[in-house]
Amino acid sequence: MSVQTPRPAPLADYGMLGPIGPLVADPLVTEVMVMGADAVYVEIHGHIVLTNIRFASTEELMHMIRFIVESVGRRIDDESPLCDARLADGSRVHAVIPPIAVDGPMLTIRKFAHDPYTEADLIALGSCTAAGFAFLRSCVLARANILISGGTGTGKTTLLNLLSGYIPSDARIVTIEDAAELQLRQGHVARLESRPPDADGRKQVTIRDLVITSLRMRPDRIVVGEVRGPEALDMLQAMNTGHEGSMTTVHANKSRDALSRIETMVLMAGIELPIKAIRQQVASAFNILVHLDRLRDGTRRVVEISEITGMEDDTISTQGVFRFASAGATASGSVQGHFEPSGLRPRILDRLPVMGLPTPPELAGLFPGLGPAGRPPLA
Length: 379
Ligand SMILES: Nc1ncnc2c1ncn2[C@@H]1O[C@H](COP(=O)(O)OP(=O)(O)OP(=O)(O)O)[C@@H](O)[C@H]1O
Ligand SMILES: [Mg+2]
Hints:
The protein has ten helices and 15 strands. Helix 7 (231-240) crosses helix 9 and helix 8 (255-268) crosses helix 9 (275-285). 25% of the residues lie in helices and 26% in strands. Strand 4 and strand 5 form a beta hairpin. It has two domains: 14-110, 2-Layer Sandwich (Beta-Lactamase), CATH 3.30.450; 119-363, Rossmann fold, CATH 3.40.50.
């Protein structure tokens, strides 16, 4: 059984998007950002570029925004000037209009990846190495709970999609998202999507509601698109009580902020627990932290993989597994560097023999006790 929320009514084609239709249709464009009628930016190859596309007038732009928003049964006006919607192709749309948008209506379209990046793609792009992915695959097979962190647009959802793909197909997976972006290939996936409140502030179904609901659906693993609020508490409890192998993402610009952000979110759930007890729950829930960043040259990379090893006094202790060590940039600005193993043997790998799983050959020599030494492949 697969649980799905109703899809929005499809837009006829990109032609309905007026002057920005060709940009949204262009496979090289990953994001389209409209800043009033006279400025349309796109992101291509990780760089933001101003295009020469213009709307004839603010009215034309407003008309298109209303069309998009109404096609998913929502409305945008003075009373509710912010709106999230989705195009029929799955692209995420965010619109904001005056008076909130000071200089005119704005629209941000995150293009849906029809052909999501594969492990080989990300290795070719220099985002991670074969050894890095071999380690992460082993973590997923060993039922590690994984937290992916990074700033806006650093590739969190893309990596979550890829790591979810390593989950064995005999597991019952429940996915929970604000906007269904994940594209799992396994057959047995129950997909849940939250719902914002309607114009009267009713009918909202939050991510937290869905995490709680999912626990009654006998999931083996829960994949939450992004934790932003009190659902962090329910997620921790799920991870600590038999749903090992779950994963989620969190918005954090620095790796070390990711776990404290989770703590803050747990506090938002309004529970009366001392901070140390919350920290203990965080430390025992998550095993692996993967941090992503977008570098100066526009490339998105896994910059750090670390293992959460427990608590030392009042702090959560972590141990590095891999990190991207930057070695400057070329004349053209391209960032060089190596994805280096820490040299400390990750404890999670000890689960592999116990679970009857092989240790991946890509990790041989990278960590003590894993075969002959060898230099890690270049990033
Ligand atoms: N490793 C990568 N290399 C190049 N482009 C990437 C990489 N990972 C993701 N992208 C592209 O970057 C854009 C943002 O990716 P994604 O949606 O995964 O980021 P995110 O961190 O989840 O963003 P948000 O914070 O908005 O949720 C997408 O267009 C995606 O295709
Ligand atoms: Mg995302």
